[in-house]
Amino acid sequence: MKTTLITTAPALIETECLAVVALDHGEKDNNQPSVSPNDEILNKAASELFASGEAKGKMFEAVTLHRPAGLKAKRLLVIGGGKAKNFSSYESRKMAGTAVRFLKPKGIKSFAFVAPDMASGMADSVRSVVEGALVGDFDPDTYKSDRKDLSMQEMTVVAPASGDQKALQAALEQARIIGESQNFTRELVNEPGNRMTPTMLADRAKKMCEEVKSPHLKCEVLDGAKIRELKMGAFWSVSQGSDEPPALIVMTYTPPGAPAQPVLGLVGKGITFDSGGISIKPSDGMEKMKYDMAGGAAMIGAMRALALLQPKVKVIGIVCASENMPSGKAQKPGDVQIAMSGKSIEIINTDAEGRLVLADGLFYARQLGCTHLIDAATLTGACVVALGMINAGVFANDDAMYDRFRRALDRSGEKMWRLPLDPEYQEMIKSGIADIVNSGGRWGGAVTAAMFLKEFVDETPWIHLDIAGVAWMEENKSWIAKGPSGIAVRSLVEFVRGFAENGVPASSGRR
Ligand code: BES
Ligand code: MN
Ligand code: ZN
């Protein structure tokens, strides 16, 4: 989807469809919504829709008007944005996505979207509209033989001429990079296990690193032999049962002019299929476990965006890619494995494999010189039980890191909720034969999984994202298709950019 910015008065824009957001101002306007930004001609064109109550400004409500009076556009699409006082970039992203998904099946290939007013300013509005439209444009029907390409070809974002044009143009371009990177991640996650083996995931990462044409982004892939040579006993224990070889993907972004520190480590779980191994999963719903590489794919998408946005901060992206399969060579419950760090792990459940590959991935990131770590993983069903499919779980061993990440969430509009890492939970992962067990049992399962990872990050400031519940949309929404969500890409990018803009804060308040 091509995106362009114009400052023509909305009424004068010649387009297949002019989309606008209508906000509900409540009593103040006799309960009649109005278009944002308030535009006399647009409000007049929509006045009968508003007066009749056909358009109330209710969130996601979409009404089209053909040959709107006083406008050059062929159609006017009025999208409800809810209560004016609550309206922010979080909502406008969804408005733009809704517009794209409403128009696509009608065969409309280009449209214009009037960037709505919001307290955070017009650049933020433009940014959110572009991100939201790109997210809305993605559909996962890749292998349907009667697939019709319904994708939107062009969106024109309409902004007031009074704004800082350079800032608006920059916001649009950056948002395009971020939205496209999120969709790139979704493409990877959408692929089934037979079409996205660890080797194929590594090939896609390498190809991406070549395609962005940045001399500052490099990709290296370590194979099974190298993983064993590095003594990554936890990682290898997951891979040993599979005929498909594992891959440790290392993407290094070193921009010129970046300070020697911080070096951010982005570590992703890349299980391309999780059968559970010998502790095999029930077959009902097992097909979903193709998306168990969503954390890894998020890191590849984030590295793509960073190489294109070029913030001045060093970043290393690491993806631990493997299958988790049962076989005569597979690890067994009761086995003891030695991680790269030297810690011994008693395997209680071979289905708790994500933490095993990440244990070595996180430790390796530190060896490569990472001073700050962030990981993303579809790690536990327990996190889905705790937070449902709305919020991802966030864990942090450092409050300053968490504060930074919280700010990134505010910018990205992704929903995540902090969960605890109290030392008391450590009791739950003690082993009788080794240092730790790989499963703390049923209670607090998301926390004990995070506590397990914490053993391998030590004192390094670290954030862990459990995205099991939010990496896959179970249903179509008006603004996003059912299927891979691309969660975490936007937050990771904003988090890294925050480091480039504000330097490194003093670490504080470990947990
Ligand atoms: N990949 C799963 C977690 C998962 C569950 C992701 C649902 C997406 C949706 C993970 O490897 C797993 O199997 N975790 C186990 C851990 C348990 C054995 C300690 C779980 O959550 O049941
Ligand atoms: Mn598992
Ligand atoms: Zn898994």
UniProtKB/TrEMBL annotation:
CC annotations in GO: cytoplasm
Annotated GO biological process: proteolysis
UniProt cofactor note: Binds 2 manganese ions per subunit.
Protein name: Probable cytosol aminopeptidase
4Fe-4S found in the keyword field: no
Cofactor(s) named in the record: Mn(2+)
Cellular localization per UniProt: Cytoplasm
Gene behind the chain: pepA
Catalytic activity: Release of an N-terminal amino acid, Xaa-|-Yaa-, in which Xaa is preferably Leu, but may be other amino acids including Pro although not Arg or Lys, and Yaa may be Pro. Amino acid amides and methyl esters are also readily hydrolyzed, but rates on arylamides are exceedingly low; Release of an N-terminal amino acid, preferentially leucine, but not glutamic or aspartic acids
Pfam families linked to this entry: Peptidase_M17, Peptidase_M17_N
List of residues binding Mn(2+) 1: D274, D351, E353
Protein family: Belongs to the peptidase M17 family.
Top-level taxonomy: Bacteria, Pseudomonadati, Acidobacteriota, Terriglobia, Terriglobales
Keyword Protease appears in the UniProt entry: yes
Active-site residue numbers: K281, R355
Binding positions (Mn(2+) 2): K269, D274, D292, E353
Gene3D superfamilies named in the record: Leucine Aminopeptidase, subunit E, domain 1, Zn peptidases
GO terms of molecular function: manganese ion binding; metalloaminopeptidase activity
Species, as recorded: Candidatus Korobacter versatilis
Keywords: Aminopeptidase, Cytoplasm, Hydrolase, Manganese, Metal-binding, Protease
